[in-house]
Amino acid sequence: MIVTECTSCDEERAAGASFCEACGRKLAEPASEVELPAAKKDCVRCGAAGSVGDDGYCEECGMMAGRSRDHLEADGGPSGAAVSDRGRRHHRNEDAMWLAVGVEAADVVVCDGVSASFDPDAASDIAVRAAGELLAGARHPDEPAGEEGDPDGTADLEGLERPAGAAGLAGAVSHAIAGAAAAVASLAHTGDPRRAAANPACTIIAAAIRGPHVGYGWVGDSRIYWLGPEGPAEQLTEDDSWATHVIAMGVDPVTAMNDPKAHAITAWLGADAGPVAPRVRSFTASEPGHLILCSDGLWNYLPDAADFGSVVRDCLETANSLLGATRALVAYANAAGGADNITVALIPVRPAEPTTTELA
Amino acid sequence: MSYTAEAFQNEYLALGASEVNAIVTVTSTGGEGGRRTGGATEIIIVDASGSMQAEGRIAAARQAAKAAVECIDDGVHFAIIAGVSTAQQLFPAPGELAVSSAQSRAQAAVAIDRLQANGGTAMGAWLLLAAQLFEQRPGDIKHAILLTDGDNGERQGYLETVLERIKESFVCDCRGVGANWKVAELRKIADKMLGTVDIVAKPAELAESFQQMITAAMGKTSADVQLKVWTPVNASVRFVKQVEPLVADLTGKRAEDGPRAGRYPLGSWGQESRDYHICVDVPAGASGDEMLAARVHVMEGDTEHARCLVRAVWTDDTALSTKINRQVAHYTGQAELADAIQAGIAARESGDDRTATIKFGRAAQLAHASGNKATEELLAKVVDIEDPVTGTVRLKRKVAAEDEMALDTRSTKTVRVGWGQ
To answer: Which of A202, A257, B307, B349 has the greatest number of C-beta atoms within 10 Å?
Structure first.
């Protein structure tokens, strides 16, 4: 899932680094690009050796031998990990994810396809790629690249060369989400009438982490949480959902969440979404913690921020790696029912050295 | 020659469900510019039994045979068999095939004029001679026309024995003239020989009917196309039916091809499109499981022309699993329509008017709902349709034998999805 050589300049990767030291490009590839080995695989269902045919079905029992998106893992070592899983009830995984990591740096994108649209898996896939590539195109802040820019200088995002601190990162995230929105909207015009009638759509959450600085943004009801050393998790995003909307207007939260419309989203990426205005924010960590990005396949089982925090903490303590903890969170959602696709990304964030001034 | 195969289905199954249905549409563009690349052989079998003297049938048959011969393309091999108590080759010399040219066709016309009606009816012997002549031309597109006006006079079981021996070795379209022949008998032949059966009520219509059949046969560019159906372990094919343009059950024609596949003969193909209904029983899967229930290949010998997949995906989302595929529903209705008509006719013959009324009522309802106007019109000649929506019909007291036979032979004719809407 993570390549070890830079595909852009062929420079060998330095130990521990995931951004190329030579050209600054990300080394990680989107997980969904992983190709299946050419040799015929054994069937995981009936055990027949080398029986999986070119079309992905077992020549013996006929079962689908596993689509590449059914379960995906991205291991960024100590810098981050992400896992996407089909869950137990859905027939395919309509979530998608992107993880690119460097030394104390990471770009993460998670998208959740809107099931009511046609080909939502295509929407989430193109969205994470578009956003991920735009985030990777933004320069690493630690890289010497001229004078520090104006923190409020978000007017010319096309020419954005180096995000300045957390606010600059938020600008890059906003730019990335706008690119993802355009990419998803373009899917309605591929000539397939079904796509035109019910255009592919998805949610998006994206975060760029550089040292202590975090920029993030969202459209829809996928969530980003911050979990500090103690206390409950803090939900950084506000769902673009019917429930959140009516709770804000004063409706009892329990009543709102039990309404069948609770999960109806009020904003999304897609041709029918109109102009997308992603909400972006930023902060600079003052204490160590973890950023958790997840689709509703996980947070539906942990609506309470205190419960969410304690489960994540348990997973982090029990597992011996970030990937292990991320897997444990996916396993938690599956054990609870796995009613939806589950995607979780875990990124540790360390506070700035005492000398660093807060920029956000 | 290029083929496409496309499957129409609702692949989502409820938990515990094990029946997978799909409509597979096979379309062929025909040969290069619609031309045959290989050879073709045509044999015309004309009943010359004594009964053919009635109503000027033999004269009409002569006209029809001559008109048919005129439609045979240059270079196609052909022969004419006169059907009496034995099979007699009328043209060319016994045991030989002529090569079509202006000259040979003119010679054939002269020979046809010598055709006299005196003798019995021996369909088994006629078909056997045709099969022997066809054997000289392996690889050719082989087509025969069988015209008769009466019952087979051979001993019980002989025709069946012959058909078992020669089945699928050539395509035979059967036509009955008048109303003294048996639909069931010709249907048996057409079914085994992958051909069609129809009534030509008036002798004067024979020439046009023959011309149509020959023109269609000359348009065929592949001799022997087959549908190969692969199914996984512990799955079984419940049926394979052609459902368009005609209903024809192919299930019993399966020839095993490897451990998990079987081939079903589709006969000869030109530029055309046909629909098949495939039903497979599979072991039920768990929620989220996806299984390949059948892989369908369009084959000609060892060459695969096209393929498509019939899938099964189990889900507990009833919104998905209860959705009925339009094609599957439509053709299930068309097959039921053919069955209802044939059951209605059988019930009427045995004097069971109550069952006949119910069956014809259901048929009227199905024909109307699916937009099968041709069948609805044929039904209206046999019963008074009072309300096609509810299927209320009354048996007519007097029905012309020709009308009932036309309904019987054409009951298998279907229409494509959407014609009724």
So the answer is: A202
